[in-house]
Specification:
Elements (H helix, E strand, L loop, with lengths): L23 H5 L5 H7 L6 E4 L8 H11 L4 H5 L3 H27 L6 H10 L3 H22 L5 E4 L6
Helix pairs in contact: 3-7, 5-6, 5-7
Length: about 160
Amino acid sequence: MRCPNCGAKIKLKYEICTKCGTKVSDIKEASFQLVKKVRKEYQPELVVYTTVFPKDLSYKNTLLWCIFGGIFGGHLYYTQRFFKAILQTAFISIFLICMLPISYQLQYGSAGFLTPFCTFMLNTQLYLIPCVLGALAVIFWAFDLIKIITRHFDVPVVLPEKKK
């Protein structure tokens, strides 16, 4: 396990991070539900990322969202990783919007009112751009799926406040 505060490796037999002093029990008691509140209050410094799923975030749901909606970033929206989720959605959407008419034209010889667009894309080889974006979306999704299965997927949490 890695410490969400400093990133140092914490061995399971230790109860505290040897570098920054964060308690392992604090990491296990972290809250996912407070992330939205903290971000709305413009206190992003309180949000840390950890591979330990807190009690209020379901590992099984995250895995299911990744399997069935991961190509569109479903697991990222579920875990409130919005910037990465929007990129994932944009990449796969650009791929689908551009390549579906092109593939239709290649198969049937015409794409209706989109035929000039498809011909332009094919003649200038600009179709490579959405292909690369689609490939990146698939690669990002595959890496996230592997990370979730191996429990190396970072989720945002807010650590409990230290008692004085």
